[in-house]
Each structure stands twice: as structure tokens, then as C-alpha cells.
Amino acid sequence: MRIIKQKNWCRMCVLAFLLALHSISLYAQNQTIKGKVLDERGDPLAGATVRSSGSQAAATTNANGEFSLAVTGDVKSIIISFIGYNNLEKLINGQSGNLGSISLVKNNNNLNDVVVVGYGTQRREAVTGSVASISGDRLRDVPSPNISQALQGRLPGVEITQTNSKPGSNMQILIRGQRSLTASNDPLVVLDGIPFAGNLGDINPNDIKSLDILKDASATAIYGSRGANGVILVTTNRGQIGGDAKITYNAYVGAQTLFARYQMMNGPEFVALRKAAGLYTNGIDEADNVDTDWQKLLYRTGIVNSHDVGVSGGSKTGSYSFVGGYYSNQGVIPTQKYTRYTLRGSVDQQVGQYIKVGFTTNNNYNLTEGNQVGIYGNLSNSPIANPFNADGTTKRTIKMPLDESYVLTRDIVENLHNQWVDETRGFATYNSMYGEVRVPGVKGLKYRLNLGLDFRQSNFGNYTGTGINSATPTTLSTANVNNSHNYHWTVENLLTYDRTFAQKHNINVLALYSAEQNKYYASSMSARGIPSDAFQFYNLGQATGEITIGNGNYQLTGLNSYMGRILYAYDNRYLLSATLRSDGSSRLAAGHKWHTFPAVSVGWNLTNESFMKGVTGLDNLKLTAGYGQTANQAVGPYQTLGLLSTRQYNFGDTNYATGYYVTRLPNSALGWEYSDTYNFAADFAVLKRRLSGRLEYYVTNTKDLLLDVSLPTTSGVNAYTANIGRTQNRGFEMSLNGTIIDNPKGLTWDMGVNFYINKNKLVALASGQTRNEGNAWFVGHNINAIFDYKYTGLWQQGDPYLNILEPGGNVGMIKAEYTGLYNANGQPTRPIGADDRQILDVDPKFQGGFNTRLAYKGFDLNIVGAFKSGGVLISSLYGSSGYLNLLTGRRNNIKVDYWTPENTGAKYPKPGGIQSGDNPKYGSTLGYFDASYLKVRTMTLGYDLNRLMPKMSSMRARLYFTVQNAFVLFSPYHKESGMDPETNSYGDENAAVPLAASQRRLLTIGTNTPTTRNYLLGLNVSF
User: Fold this and answer.
1) Per-residue pLDDT tens for 742-789?
2) Which residues pair with 420 in a beta bridge?
3) What is the DSSP string of 737-792?
4) ∠ Cα 609 85 861 (to 5°)
């Protein structure tokens, strides 16, 4: 019995000993490390990654910068990383508990930043293609409803130009210039990895995490034909795995005032002009002692309102983010308003050890109102016409010598309510889902399926009541509706293998198969004689007048693609990227639908070479070179099939038949428009990385342009689409970023500048032609060119050859440059005529932008600007097409310095002189200006409200005040007119006699909504 008890006791001792060892083992395997990560200013850094060396254990800091990480006892160090900061390795040597505060050091040249490239990411140091990037935080330095407005002037080689100044309008984006003459030059937008079927105005800038632009073909070829004009990769914010729930609120409100009025003559100035012209006497409603400011009677103060509320966070295996946004802009023109509601959500979830799934949804509803109200009538109304009756009521119309104009004041427009309506309602939902599987047993191999499902809808309607905006009170009411729907889906299958061998050979292989389809249809209807204002445009079937069903539009297009890419890096010194992609487009002819696009680029990190170790002062130098081919298939669907139109034939009084005739010939050989690009670049950093930059040179040759070929009228057919002609873009780009003063506890000053030159020219046209005067295309000149006379001054008394060059001309008229021959006596041999028209290249010599940030004890000042040198600015306000510079006194005139016998040094011609139509002869030359300017686009003064809060507070808050369109310098146009030198219209818009549709590509300043200067007060809060 005793023996048995002793055995049991021994067994218990052994068991206790084993349990103790197991406890020690557990203690060694499961200890917790805590700490707090701070930025260079000592503020908490949320979202930093903390991982243990030698294992997969990782954690993310919360809003207070705090982390908690479970590690094994044999872990010697932890590594802390955050984008924009140097990685920090902190030794722990098995210790546990709280490590206290850990400060990261800012990385001045961002070599360790992750850059989004096609179907993946790379460290900036490993990128060999041309990629320009900007973070969402920097993008929001310019508070804006549209990404393109916030991006203007921020990145080299990315030209963003205003095409419309109405609230909610989009901008034109060109990456390294124009390539195509009539096909699209718009870049591809990719939202969270899926090609985007909408426009950038549908994306809330507050949702952006980063924006990366692929510029050269070695970078864009991975997107094949869709990347021909560059690629804009938009990455939105997502939740943090392991992060605490975080609520954000971003808002700004503000007022919009006129940047400058259109410089029209006042009453006394107009009286003097009419007297100098001697052509007209006062109309019924005019008197020399009246001085009416028609613009003041119309404009109002605009209001801007933006609010976004979001919540994000995550668990150990997933993350989520949901944001709702509201934006409203009530413009300076009565009833003009843009309203947008956005809702974005994303969820990412790890399922088990190998599978990850997620989805993203971006939704928006927008309403555009009041675009029916134009300002040409008010600008051209006589300033000596009285709009008020004797009793103080407003007249319906005013009568001038030859014209009768409907009176539009702010009160009249706002009180018309249901009698004058213009609305566009847009709804869009962009959705993507993915599933990702890491292949068991094969390290680094994974498969991913992306599915994108998008829908867009636009509903336009307008209604003009009886006699509204017409000199005739009985003019019938009219209404129009236009509806369009767009359905888009994308499926992408990606197989990726990413491994590093022997700690020096890093290889990433990607294979893709994708399919995409887009279906679009639209319909329209118009009617006259709407029986009640209450019907507006909702019940056109009740119209008593003519009802017209417009031509419908239906398009179904598809694209299939195969792609392979290899990224290789040896010892972080030698870099290689090679891509091969094949696209098949339904838009092109059978036998020409498919093409394969190659691209290759190489890089050399010289500073990682052993022979560079002793070189001081140079912290980084990387050289890259690349070649790639892309193509453009962006022509209208069914161009290969030709086009039929209809015509009605009468057979007697009541019988008719519909006939069909050919208006466009088919082309069974229509194929791709190709672009070959060569790119050479150097990245560098000096002065301990406080100054960094990038230099690039590129050449893009485009051939087989997709171009409409006009046919003689005798053929009975207008045109057909063919592959003809060539263009070329050559350019140089430079970007510099520097830290001038770096004192985290005092003053810091960062500054950046970008500069770029793009030389664009037309190399060849069809059939050996060197010029196409109708479209203003000339070999050896810009795609954007003007073909017109050249202004050289005004004819003065005593000038020789006036009677020869301008038979019947007068002193004070415009002198156009003569390009003809001279006889032996030095006299011109003919009058000035059509042969003296010259080619004027529109594109600027160079352009760019700049930004600077100063911070001191919680205060920060951010300034963002843009500049342009040279080129031609077209202003229809001063030229013939605008009918605002007639110099006859018929209607009001833009304020100009005109010729009189007492003012012979003037720029503008004698009033009432020789005319061509209603304008001064050669009056079109008065609308061409030097396009140079320097504009401070945004000035923002902010304050970190956390300075006023307890140190342990989890709330982050910043208050700021912003002035947009602050001022303009070095602009000849601004100096003369006081107005904004940025364009606001396409060539066929906002002028009394617009340019031909073929020259719509030329951007102008026309009678659009005036540019505003905005004053905003904003608040950013997170907790």
C-alpha cells in the first residue's frame, strides 16, 4: 500500500513538473508587446503596421497610435512601417510589456512608398515605367467636388483644362498631349482595379486614398487598347484589419463671388462708342443719361456645401469602410445648381487560411439645374436701355435700334419657377467583387477573380413656357426630354506568382484573361404647345403642337483580352518589366479585331552598387528606359458597317413612303490606331534625401489614325472612317520636391514644383496631303491649330500701300500681315486675301504647377498653383464669333481701347469702319491672346485643434480656411480684361457664331458662367 502511494506521489510530481515546463513554454510563446507610434511632430500615427521579425504576427495602430501585438518569446525585434516614413526596427530581445512611445522618421523621397501599377502594386524604388502619384490627403489640399479640379497643375505631363464653368462640370484630361485627330484622347480610369465606366465627377474626392497615373506605354500596355491615352488608377479608402472602429466627418461651406465681371462698356462709354461709329440712333428704351449694369441685375452670391460622414474599422480577419457624402453648389447664375449624393462601401474578409473575398460599391445621384440661363443677352444688352417702367416694375423686353431683347434679371429668373425649367438627373452605381485564393503548397502563387457590374442612367428634361425668353409674347411653349442608360460588366481572371529567391532574386509573374461588355441606348422627344406649365416636360403626349420623336441610339461593344507580365529585380539593383497583351475589339472590322501589344522597360539603381558606397551627397539615383506599344479603338461602334439615313417621299396628298440612302460608306479593313512610345527617366535624391526629383524624356509616334475621310459631294456620300495619317508627341518632364526647413517642433517648409513640355505635331495626312484647311490640320503643326489672318496693328494716316493692300479701306482698320510678292519698286503685287491666312499653333511652350506647405506649432499654410507659358488663347468675347466686339454701337460692346483720330495708338479698330458681315474686317484676329499665366489656385490656412485637447484624446480635428482662384499673374489676357485666363468652352459653344463642329477640340473663353473666387471654411474630424 505504501509502495502504491509512493508511486502515485512520484507520478504527481512528474506531472506537476511537466505542467510547469508547459506553462513556461506557453509563457515563452505568448507574450504581448504594447506601445504607441508617433509621427515626426510627436502626434499619434494611426494605421501604422507593427509586425514581428521572423513571423507573420502583425498589428495596426489605432486612432491613438497604440498597438498590441502577441509574439513568441524568441522574437528579437519588431518592425514598424507607415507610408511616407522610414521603416523602424526596434529590438525587444524577448521582453514583453509596454515599450512606450516610438517615433518614426519621415522619408523625404518616399522611395518606400507603395505605388499602384496595373493589376498590383510596387515599391517606388522598383518601378521602371512612368508613374506619377499623389495621395488622397495631398489631393484634398484643394477642396473640390471633382478629382480633376483638385489634380490640375499637380503632376507633370498631365494637362487638365477647364471646358465648362457651370457648377458640376467636368474637365478635359490629356496625358502627354493629344494623339488622335477624331478618336477619343481621354485616358482610361480604373477604380479599385476595375475599368471605370463613368466620369471622375462621379467619385467623391474625400473617398480617395491615392491616385496613380500611368503615362508611358511600358506602364500602360498592361491595359492594352484602353491604355492608349494613359491610365488613371483611383484607389479608395478601405478599413484597417485589426483596427478599432473609426468615425470621420469632413465638411466645408463657403461663398462664391465673381473672380471678375465680363468687361462690358458702361453707359457713358457706350454713348461715346455709338457717337464715334455714327451708325445708330437710340432705340425706344434708350437714353444717353441711363447707365444700366445688366450683370449686376443678374448675378448672385453662390454657395458651396460639402459634408461626408464615414465609419471604418476591422477585425483580426477583415475590414470594412462606409462613407456617405453630400455636395451642393448653388452658382452665381440664378437657378444654376449642382447637387450630388454619394454612398461608398467596402468589405474585405479573410476566410480561413487561403481565401480572401471582398466587395466595393460606389453610388451617386446628382441633379444639375438651371443651365438654360445664358448670359449673352445680358452682356449684349445696351447699357443705356432702361429695364424699368415708370412705376418701378420691370419691362418684359427692351428695344434697341435693331434688336428687341427679353429682360433677364435675378428676380425674374427666380420667379419663373415652373415656366422655365432645365434639369438633368443622373444615377450611377459602380460595383466590384473579388475572390482571392492562395494556392496551398505553392508559396507565392494565388488566383484572383474580379467582377465589375456598373449601371448609369441620365434623364434630361427642359421646359420653356409661352413667350419666355422671347421677344414675342405668343411664342409657343416647348419641352424636350432625353434619356440614356449604360450597362457595363467586366470579368478578370488573374494568376500571380510572387517570390524572392536567395534574398536577391525577386520575381513577379502575372497572367490575365478578361472580358468586358458595354451596352448603351438613348432616346429623345420634343414637343411644342404644352397646354399647362404644370406639365413641364413630363407629359409631352398632351402637346397641342408638333411632337417629334428623335433618333434613338443603341450601342453594344465588347473587348476580350489576354495578358502576361514579368517583373524581375536582382538585388534591388537591376530591374526588368516585360508585358505582352492581346486585345480583341468588336468595334473594328473582321480580320482586324485582334492585336498584340508588347512593352518592356529596364531600371538600374546605381546607388545600390558597391562602387557608389563612397559617393557622398547623392542619396539615390535610378535610371530607367522603356518601350511599349498601345493602340486606340475609341471610334463609334458600327463604323465598319456604314450608315443609312431616311428620307420621306410623297406620293400624292396623303400617301408617303420612307426611303433609305447611304450617308457613310463601310470599311471592311478598319483596324487599330497604334502608338509606339520610348521613355527615358532618372530619379534622384540629394542632401540626405531633402531634395528629390525625376527627369523624363519621351517620344510617342502614332500611326494609322482613326479618321473620317471626306468624300466629294458627287459621290453622294459624306465620308467613311479609315486608318490614315500619323502624329507625334515629344516631351520633357521634371518634378522636384524638397524640404527647405525641417524642424518638427518648430517650423517646417516643404515645396514642390513640376514642369513639362509637350511638342505635338501632325506628321502625315491621307494620300500625301499636307493640309486640310476645313479642319485646320496641317502637317508639321499642332493638332490644335488656327488658320486665319495675322494681326499686325492698325492702318494709320500716311501708311504706304493702303490702297493696294486694302482697296476701299480706311485709316484705323485692322492691318493683316501680307505674305505675297513685291515688285521691283517694293510695292505689293496684290491686295490682301485668303492666301494671306497663316497657321497659328495653339499649344503652349511649357506648363506646370507648384505647391508649398509651411507648418508651425499647429498652424499650416498650403499653397497650390499652376502656370503656362506661350500658346494661343482664343476668346470669342473679343473676336468676331462672339458678337460682343462689333464696334458699331448696335448693341453693347466689350470694353476696348479703340482707334479715333485722337487715339491713334489703340489696339482695336475704328468704330464703324470697314466690316465683314457684322464685324470689323479681320475681326477674328482680335480674339487671339498669349495664353501665358501663373495662377494661385488655392491658399489654405489650417490649425490642428488637437493642440487644444488633452494629450490622451482619441479625437483628431483640424479647422481650415481656403481661398480658391486667389489671383493671377503674368497673363496678358488678364491684364487687358481682368478676367480669368482659363478656358470655359469648347469651340462650338457659347458664342453667337460658334466654330464649326470639326473644330470643337479648340478650347475658348466664351459667354459661359463667369469664373468664381471661392471662400471656404472647413473641418476634418476623426475619432
Assistant:
1) 887 789 999 999 999 999 999 999 878 899 998 899 999 999 999 999
2) 464
3) EEEEEE-TTSEEEEEEEEEEEEEEEEEE-GGG--EETTTTEETTS-SSEEEE--EE
4) 125
